[in-house]
């Protein structure tokens, strides 16, 4: 689908100008960009493990059918990720992919038993230093050969899980060396069983960097690999790059500032990002009664991004209470504004905050306090 068809007047369309402007940026294909550097480093690792095995795709378009994004991945009908609160819809049947898993089934149908797919993905999400509405994922999948596990299906699933964890631990070693603390956490995905997430200790907290698991049998059965066993993963490239290059804020990946871009060079994994300056943050609180019609933090975040662009660093709920008599609920959010490039002045922040307050009322139906 052509790009200009992304912002449509379809009543389901919830793609904002802010998001629209990011489509086609393709940070993962910009040679000296940290997202591209980490992509290449991961490709190198997988090539070294099984030379010539993995087919690679990094030009698949982010506009996909809801069927590919959800149905083919067995995401159940009422699952939260399908809601327009979480996903950008172009029309009722078309979305901006929210994960690279959207391409798993079709790539299997094309007959590829092993592949790596890299691309930009889109999500309505909360705002903080490690969440951004556009980010990059790499999908990996390998279907095992029956003779690798003696043909027994249960042994096949166990073999897939073992290889998956070994590979991803090996990848973490390859990227970060042995000094980095990692842990496996049990997880749930509709398209894998069992499922796991890998977390890395970074800047004082555990950062989730990937999800993975043994591919649901139905997905293989329906897409040309009947009765076979496979593992799959989805990596968050910004998160891995943040750890690798010590990049403290996910917004920096979008900086066109040479002070950022100049620090990275293709093939160099040893760069430690030097913050060029930490400009002061400015905090603004906003309190309001929630509308009867419902309210979500993602909607607020979208309003704030719309008004502030990348000047918003975090949006955090700091207080909530329900009035004992009226039963109405009030929330107070703290919005942190900070530029990566310069000091902000009061006037511009006040203007942004005024726009946020105005849209909270006009668009979200909140009653300011
Ligand atoms: C998925 O997207 C699954 N498709 C991954 C997967 C693939 C599992 C294949 C099993 C098999 P999840 O929603 O947890 O999972 O996202 C994967 C990774 O994307 C996260 O671990 C994190 O590193 C990154 N990520 C998620 N949301 C954001 C965000 N808002 N900003 C930056 N990175 C994010
Ligand atoms: Mg997750």
Describe the structure in brief.
By secondary structure, the chain is α+β, with helices and mostly antiparallel strands. Helices cover 28% and strands 27% of the residues.
- Biggest sheet character: 7 strands, mixed
| Bulk shape | globular
Highest-level CATH class of the largest domain: Alpha Beta
Main sheet strand line-up: 1-5-6-10-9-8-7
Q: How far do the termini sit from each other?
A: 44 Å
| N to C succession of SSEs | HHEEHEEHEEHEEEHEHHEHEEHE
- Number of alpha- plus pi-helical segments: 10
> Uncertain regions: pLDDT < 50 for 5+ in a row?
none
CATH topology of the largest domain: BirA Bifunctional Protein, domain 2
Overall residue-averaged pLDDT value: 95
Please indicate the percent range of residues in DSSP E strands (runs of 2 or more).
Answer: 25-35%
Number of strands: 14
Total domain count = 2
Structural class: alpha+beta
Ligand catalogue: adenosine-5'-[phenylalaninyl-phosphate], magnesium ion
The percent of residues in helical segments reads: 25-40%
* Shape-level CATH architecture of the largest domain: 2-Layer Sandwich
Helix and strand layout, with pairings?
Blueprint: H1 17-20, H2 34-49, E1 55-57, E2 63-65, H3 66-69, E3 89-91, E4 94-96, H4 104-109, E5 114-122, E6 134-143, H5 153-176, E7 182-189, E8 192-202, E9 205-215, H6 217-222, E10 230-236, H7 237-245, H8 258-261, E11 282-289, H9 297-308, E12 312-322, E13 329-337, H10 346-362, E14 367-368
Helix pairs in contact: 2-5, 2-7, 9-10
């Amino acid at each position: 689908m052509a790009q200009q068809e992304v912002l449509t007047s379809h009543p389901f369309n919830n793609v904002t100008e802010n998001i629209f402007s990011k489509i086609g940026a393709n940070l993962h294909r910009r040679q000296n960009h940290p997202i591209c550097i980490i992509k290449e480093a991961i490709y190198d690792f997988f090539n070294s493990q099984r030379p010539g095995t993995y087919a690679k795709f990094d030009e698949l378009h982010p506009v996909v059918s809801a069927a590919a994004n959800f149905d083919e991945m067995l995401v159940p009908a009422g699952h939260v990720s399908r809601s327009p609160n979480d996903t950008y819809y172009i029309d009722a049947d078309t979305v901006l992919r929210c994960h690279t898993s959207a391409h798993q089934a079709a790539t299997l149908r094309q007959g590829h038993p092993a592949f790596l797919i890299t691309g930009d993905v889109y999500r309505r999400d909360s705002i903080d230093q490690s969440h951004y509405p556009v980010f990059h994922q790499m999908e990996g999948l390998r279907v095992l050969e029956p003779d690798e596990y003696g043909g027994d299906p249960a042994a096949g699933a166990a073999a897939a899980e073992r290889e998956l964890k070994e590979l991803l631990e090996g990848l973490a070693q390859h990227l970060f060396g042995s000094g980095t603390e990692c842990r496996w956490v049990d997880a749930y995905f509709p398209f894998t069983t069992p499922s796991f997430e890998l977390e890395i200790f970074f800047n004082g907290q555990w950062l989730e960097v990937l999800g993975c698991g043994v591919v649901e049998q139905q997905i293989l059965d329906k897409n040309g690999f009947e009765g076979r066993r496979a593992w799959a993963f989805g990596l968050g490239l910004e998160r891995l790059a943040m750890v690798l290059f010590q990049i403290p804020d996910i917004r920096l990946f979008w900086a066109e500032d040479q002070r950022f871009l100049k620090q990275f060079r293709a093939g160099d994994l040893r760069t430690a990002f030097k913050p060029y300056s930490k400009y002061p943050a400015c905090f603004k609180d906003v309190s309001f009664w929630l509308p009867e019609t419902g309210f979500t933090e993602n909607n607020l975040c979208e309003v704030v991004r719309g008004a502030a662009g990348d000047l918003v660093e975090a949006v955090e709920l700091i207080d909530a209470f329900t009035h004992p008599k009226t039963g109405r609920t009030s929330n107070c959010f703290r919005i942190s504004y900070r530029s990566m490039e310069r000091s902000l002045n009061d006037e511009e922040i006040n203007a942004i905050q005024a726009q946020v307050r105005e849209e909270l009322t006009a668009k979200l139906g909140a009653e300011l306090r």
